[in-house]
Design goal:
The protein has helices at 2-42, 106-117, 130-142, 157-171, 195-216, 233-236, 242-261, 288-291, 310-317, 319-322; strands spanning 97-101, 121-126, 147-151, 176-179, 225-229, 268-274, 329-332. It is α/β, with parallel strands linked by helices and 338 residues long. Helix 2 crosses helix 9 (310-317), helix 4 (157-171) packs parallel to helix 5 and helix 5 (195-216) packs parallel to helix 7.
């Protein structure tokens, strides 16, 4: 018995020595890390410069400007970039017909132009920004494709039905629906969110997507697609965009659900989730002094230009490129945190 006890004691002693050695090693690593941290603090922090990864250098300084809703692109002091001059079309949407809601400006305009460059006829649906819509039409037609401009409110199911009918009559088909129209307005507190404000957001941002998809689907065949515009706010939330963030999260869920629902019909449904993008939406929401800081807290230190988003929509619309992509929420945020 005495021998066994001694053996156990020897093993315990060996384990203790190993533990002490490990603890000493960890303390050594700790000391080195703390010393390195002290040295790093002594160095002046380098000022973060906005990142550039585009084919051309994008703007980083924004005007301190506020617009009346719904916000006209023509009134912006810094015009959003949407032409994507370095993007060469290659017939990825040749002979197809598309609807882009909110296509008068911002992301919608950039998408309409690239769709046309890839060979699609495009219908631009907008609320009341006639001048902006006609400018989009001019650029679509400059790409050699037909463009139909239709004014109305996607909150109204009858308008959605009528608009889709006009498009099918004009183009003879409907292959792509881009749900992009949106309403956004910051509030400081939930108590400040009025019923009218809440309903405007809900009915535009999510009910409007339902109305347009329901109207479009009877005219869409195998190989067609629906692309919804979500948002980083639907993933991460936003403390002052409570209603907007909720609708964007709903759009993501709608995308996943409808993608499963339409799978047997060969119609794909996907979503682009942008980070901050320079469009009339934010200057028509925030005070001018906040607009000047828009996007500076993003990973890239600047907002995207619409032309940096539009190729993602081409990718999702083209059956040549994304026939096996369905139910995707594609983040275009300039980084993992937006």
């Amino acid at each position: 018995m005495a021998t066994k006890k001694a053996g156990k004691s020897a093993k315990t002693g060996g384990s203790a020595k190993t533990g002490e050695a490990t603890a000493a090693r960890q303390r050594s690593i700790q000391r080195e890390a703390l010393q390195a941290a002290k040295q790093a603090k002594k160095k002046a922090p380098a000022k973060k410069s906005p990142a550039q990864a585009s084919a051309r250098k994008q703007p980083t300084r924004l005007p301190a400007q506020h617009l009346a809703k719904p916000g006209k692109e023509a009134d912006l002091d810094l015009q959003p970039r949407f032409t994507a001059p370095d993007y060469a079309g290659s017939g990825k949407l040749e002979g197809m017909a598309a609807i882009v809601t909110g296509g008068d400006s911002g992301i919608g305009r950039a998408v309409a132009v690239l769709f046309a460059r890839e060979g699609a006829d495009v219908a631009v649906l907008h609320l009341a920004e006639d001048g902006d819509a006609q400018e989009t039409r001019r650029h679509v037609e400059a790409e050699g494709r037909r463009c139909l401009v239709i004014a109305g409110d996607v909150r109204d199911p009858a308008f959605c039905e009528d608009a889709v009918g006009q498009v099918v009559d004009a183009f003879g088909r409907l292959d792509v629906l881009v749900n992009n129209a949106a309403f956004q307005q910051h509030v400081e507190r939930l108590e400040d969110l009025t019923d009218a404000h809440l309903q405007e957001t809900l009915q535009t941002n999510i009910a409007g997507y339902f109305h347009m998809a329901r109207a479009a689907l009877p005219h869409m065949e195998q190989g067609a697609s629906i692309i919804n515009t979500g948002s980083e706010t639907g993933i991460f939330g936003n403390p002052k965009l409570l209603d907007y963030s909720a609708t964007k999260g709903a759009i993501h869920a709608f995308t996943l659900s409808l993608a499963s629902n339409l799978l047997d019909r060969g119609i794909r449904v996907n979503c682009v989730a942008p980070g901050p993008v320079w469009t009339p939406l934010n200057p028509a929401d925030k005070p001018a002094e906040d607009v000047a800081k828009f996007g500076k807290d993003s990973d890239m230190g600047r907002p995207a230009q619409p032309e940096e988003l539009s190729p993602a929509y081409v990718f999702l619309a083209s059956p040549v490129m994304s026939s096996y992509v369905n139910g995707a929420i594609l983040p275009v945020m300039g980084g993992p945190r937006g």
